[in-house]
């Protein structure tokens, strides 16, 4: 074994603890290709590092986390669904926004939406063709009178976003309540789609200019559609069909 | 092992076949450890939940990259949690895959004695072994693994030469391995 290899073997501990800077880790991996002693050391130390998590104090995550994961997992099968796979779109989340855009704790149901609306935590941001007539109070009315509600989950492009699509019982136009979407990119708008099979129908465009809960009134009822999605499209009018992967996605159950 | 409690390896095989139910079971089995590790590293419940969510989505999308001969599903899952939590701490772009040694590199068969050791270990065993390490080795390992400091940062913070920090990490992990093997041997005798 050369002196060089002897010196490098001391990197093995830092490597398995993930304590090397990115360039150092890549350099050490290049060394590993040529040094069986260091490979053996890394393998043995990694096995020890692998049991370190057992030492942590056990804390139960919130039950809502399970729902969010499974909703998103099921949604990944849809072609509109956003992805962080190689070549996929870049997450539209900036470090500056991250601290303000925490996922709402309980966004996955009508009761949660009603609670938030009841607390008056709304901030309507409507524009263009989206209907602006209804007041937020009418959403609470819908929920109190048998409206249906479906969770809409932020995809990996906008993981901090979440919301609820509310369909009033009287077949009025649907209402979309959400939080956590980043500000609209320059010259872009968010566009809401309702999908029947593979056919998208635009349900309106909107912009986000500030963090917080927002309520938008769509152009159509959601009845008869299977999927809703929100994509980023060219402003101010949006597109005839989705041109990007979804930032929010939800299945509209029977 | 009954079919109602399939081992993790069987769950991974089902997840590779896009069985959502298998992912649910894997989540139910390992959610607490995954979340606890993320929380310990990041300190924020919201960030920790996001990391766990990203991890299980990564498992779903990349299950075919899991190599049973290299690690257990639990270790693989927790390594993804750890990488993502550390990357978030350091503000780096999330890696698409956990770092794996490349094809052709020698990997010991995980049916070796260590597998028996790691399968039998409890949190209490690992905490007790960590407590027996010399404090400077334990602190260095914990700063790196649980707090996300690089070896250079630890050298600066502790005013210890970089070579010493690297040595403490490696020697500490070696000693920890020996201690845990002893623990396992004592458990077998009892």
The parts of chain B where pLDDT drops under 50 for at least 5 residues are 93-106
Q: How helical, in percent, are the residues of chain A? A: 25-40%
* Elements of chain B, N to C (H/E): HHHHHHHHH
Question: How many strands appear in the DSSP assignment of chain A?
Answer: 8
- DSSP strand content of chain A: 15-25%
The helix content of chain B is 55-70%
What CATH architecture of the largest domain in chain B do you see?
Answer: Orthogonal Bundle
> Which value, in Å, is the CA radius of gyration of chain B?
18 Å
Write out key terms for the chains shown.
A: 254 residues, eight-stranded antiparallel β-sheet, 29% helix, elongated, disordered N terminus, B: 190 residues, mainly alpha, Rna Polymerase Sigma Factor, Chain: A, Arc Repressor Mutant, subunit A, 69% helix, 0% strand
Task: Reconstruct the topology from this structure.
The complex is a heterodimer of chains A (254) and B (190).
Chain A: H1 3-8, H2 11-16, H3 22-32, H4 36-51, H5 63-75, H6 95-98, H7 110-118, H8 136-144, E1 148-154, E2 162-167, E3 175-179, E4 188-196, E5 199-206, E6 214-217, E7 227-234, E8 248-251
Antiparallel strand pairs in A: 1-2, 1-8, 2-3, 3-6, 4-5, 4-7, 7-8
Helix pairs in contact in A: 7-8
Chain B: H1 8-16, H2 20-42, H3 45-61, H4 73-90, H5 113-120, H6 123-132, H7 135-145, H8 151-158, H9 162-189
Helix pairs in contact in B: 1-2, 2-3, 2-4, 3-4, 5-9, 6-9, 7-9, 8-9
Overall description:
- The complex is a heterodimer of chains A (254) and B (190).
- By secondary structure, chain A is of the alpha+beta class.
- Chain A has helices spanning 3-8, 11-16, 22-32, 36-51, 63-75, 95-98, 110-118, 136-144, and strands at residues 148-154, 162-167, 175-179, 188-196, 199-206, 214-217, 227-234, 248-251.
- In chain A, strand 4 and strand 5 (199-206) form a beta hairpin.
- The longest helix of chain A is centred in the first third of the chain and has 16 residues, at 36-51.
- Chain A is elongated and about 75 Å long.
- With 190 residues, chain B is mainly alpha-helical.
- Chain B folds into two domains: 8-93, Rna Polymerase Sigma Factor, Chain: A, CATH 1.10.1740; 113-189, Arc Repressor Mutant, subunit A (Orthogonal Bundle), CATH 1.10.10.
- Chain B has nine helices and no strands.
- In chain B, helix 1 crosses helix 2 (20-42), helix 2 (20-42) runs antiparallel to helix 3 (45-61) and helix 8 packs across helix 9 (162-189).
- The radius of gyration of chain B is 18 Å and the shape is globular.
- Chains A and B meet through helix 2, helix 3, helix 4 and helix 5 of A and helix 2, helix 3, helix 4, helix 6 and helix 7 of B.
């Amino acid at each position: 074994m050369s002196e060089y290899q002897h010196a490098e073997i001391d990197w093995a501990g830092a490597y398995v603890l993930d304590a090397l800077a990115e360039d150092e880790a890549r350099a050490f991996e290049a060394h590993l290709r040529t040094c069986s002693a260091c490979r053996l050391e890394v393998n043995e130390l990694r096995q020890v590092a692998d049991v370190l998590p057992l030492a942590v104090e056990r804390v139960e995550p919130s039950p809502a986390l399970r729902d969010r994961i499974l909703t998103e997992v099921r949604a990944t099968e849809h072609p509109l669904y956003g992805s962080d796979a190689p070549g996929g779109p870049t997450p539209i989340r900036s470090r500056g926004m991250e601290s303000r855009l925490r996922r709402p704790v309980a966004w996955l149901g009508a009761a949660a939406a009603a609670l938030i609306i009841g607390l008056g935590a709304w901030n309507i941001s409507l524009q263009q063709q989206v209907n602006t007539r209804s007041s937020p109070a009418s959403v609470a009315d819908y929920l109190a009178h048998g409206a249906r509600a479906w969770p809409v989950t932020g995809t990996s492009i906008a993981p901090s976003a979440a919301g609820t699509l509310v369909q009033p019982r009287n077949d009025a136009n649907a209402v979309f309540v959400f939080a956590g979407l980043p500000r609209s990119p320059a010259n872009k708008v968010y566009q809401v789609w309702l999908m029947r099979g593979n056919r998208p129908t635009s349900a309106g465009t909107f912009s986000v200019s500030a963090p917080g809960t927002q309520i938008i009134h769509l152009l159509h009822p959601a009845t008869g559609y299977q999927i809703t999605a929100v994509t980023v499209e060219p402003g101010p009018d949006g597109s005839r069909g989705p041109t990007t992967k979804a930032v929010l996605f939800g299945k509209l159950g029977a | 092992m009954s079919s109602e409690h399939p081992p993790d390896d069987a769950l991974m095989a089902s997840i590779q076949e896009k069985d959502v139910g298998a992912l649910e079971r894997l989540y139910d089995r390992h959610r607490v450890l995954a979340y606890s590790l993320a929380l310990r590293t990041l300190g924020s419940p919201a960030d920790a939940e996001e990391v766990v969510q990203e991890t299980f989505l990564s498992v779903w999308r990349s299950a075919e990259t899991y190599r049973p001969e290299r690690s257990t599903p639990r270790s693989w899952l927790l390594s993804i949690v750890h990488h993502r939590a550390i990357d978030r701490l350091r503000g780096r772009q999330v890696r698409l895959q956990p770092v794996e040694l490349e094809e052709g590199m020698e990997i010991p068969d995980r049916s070796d004695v260590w597998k028996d050791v790691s399968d039998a270990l409890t949190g209490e065993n690992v905490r007790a072994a960590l407590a027996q390490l010399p404090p400077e080795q334990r602190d260095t390992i914990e700063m790196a693994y649980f707090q996300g400091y690089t070896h250079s940062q630890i050298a600066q913070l502790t005013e210890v030469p970089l070579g010493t920090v690297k040595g403490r990490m490696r020697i500490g992990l070696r000693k920890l391995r020996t201690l845990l093997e002893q623990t396992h041997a004592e458990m077998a005798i009892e």
